[in-house]
Amino acid sequence: MSLRSSTLAAALLSFSALLPAGSAAVAADMPVKAVKPIIDVPFFMVNDNRITYSYQFTATDPGVPGKTAKQVYSFTHFDVWAYGTNFFTIDMLKSDHNDPAVPCGLVAGVTGCAGATEFYGLFRSTLGFNELFNTKQFSAGPLRNVSFYFGADFNTENNAVAPAKRSVVAGLQFAFNLPYKGYFNVSPVYYNEFSNHNSFLMPAFNGGIGIPDGNTQFRGTWAVETNYYMDLGFLPDYLPLSISGRAAWYGPKGQGTSIAIPGNLNTATEFNSEPIRLTLDASKMMWGPKYSHHLDVWVAYRYWQNKFGLDHKNSPVCTGANSGSCTEQSLSSGVSVKF
């Protein structure tokens, strides 16, 4: 070692000997810029689950004279994730005695049956083009996004018809902004009710002509599904009301059978809507914005023409003694709880 190096080393050793015992940690204790923690982004940006009880005052069922009251129990799920949305609902609809469960209406002379019970499920999903392609090219003015839109419906009911609907939809959704953070969605789609069931199309009810198992298959057709929501933000804060609604048109889908059966006519364009629902955000009104929409109370109007595609003017199921049974106009009211 050179004389210069030896002298420098000795000086450093002498200086270190003068430092307090804990000074070896001085460098470690020097302030440094904190590393920002990595925040876990949840998979679902919105995850909303609700149960609802509602009462429909004057529902109708094709081929059943008069009005039918229905109690409806529903579970609804809605979520938003990185590339789109998912919506799912399943309803249990319990009819009064006017829409009886089997064997009433199927076996002559049997009366006094309880009301029928229907289960109806529906899901709809979207994949947003802005999100899929990491762009804003599908937004312009009030148009917020364009999405691929798809879904399915299914049902079963223990009435005389014994329906077992299975259908799919696929197309586009155009999503528009409304005031007060509202939205309006329009979805032109392809609709295919590829499977259903109708006991009254079996040979026993048609003089030996019919479908042995009662299963039907309709042709694909066009459809347009719409829905909207808007807070009534111009009202005072102590009155948190909102409006929402939906409307859907389903084109004619044929007879559902490969053979001609007396009285089984071609279907007509079906219009199924709940044009207005007025909702009171009861939880926000009672407990503040933190609990917004945890408890909703609502009233709605429903209008459904050519129910299930049955022509309300010409189908034997909808005319004569059954006149009016294929057009539904009804008020309904319910309570929804978020959990």
Task: Report on this structure.
It contains 4 helices and 13 strands. The protein has a 12-stranded antiparallel barrel with strand order 1-2-3-4-5-6-7-9-10-11-12-13. It is mainly beta and 339 residues long.
Chart the SSEs and their pairings.
Blueprint: H1 3-18, H2 26-29, E1 44-61, E2 64-81, E3 84-95, E4 117-128, H3 129-132, E5 143-157, E6 166-178, E7 182-197, E8 215-216, E9 221-231, E10 241-250, E11 270-281, H4 282-287, E12 295-305, E13 327-338
Question: What is the gist of this entry?
Answer:
The chain is mainly beta. The protein has helices spanning 3-18, 26-29, 129-132, 282-287; strands at residues 44-61, 64-81, 84-95, 117-128, 143-157, 166-178, 182-197, 215-216, 221-231, 241-250, 270-281, 295-305, 327-338. A hairpin with a 2-residue loop joins strand 1 and strand 2.
Largest sheet entry: 12 strands, antiparallel, barrel
Contiguous helical run count: 4
What's the CATH class label? Mainly Beta
Write the CATH homologous superfamily. Answer: Nucleoside-specific channel-forming protein, Tsx-like
Residue fraction in strands: over 45%
Mean residue pLDDT: 91
Low-confidence stretches: 1-28
Helix content: under 10%
Write down the secondary-structure element order: HHEEEEHEEEEEEEHEE
What's the gyration radius in Å? 31 Å
CATH architectural designation: Beta Barrel
Oligomer: single chain
Instruction: Give the neighbour order of strands across the main sheet.
Output: 1-2-3-4-5-6-7-9-10-11-12-13
Question: What is the CATH fold-level name?
Answer: Outer membrane phospholipase (ompla), Chain C
Class of secondary structure makeup: mainly beta
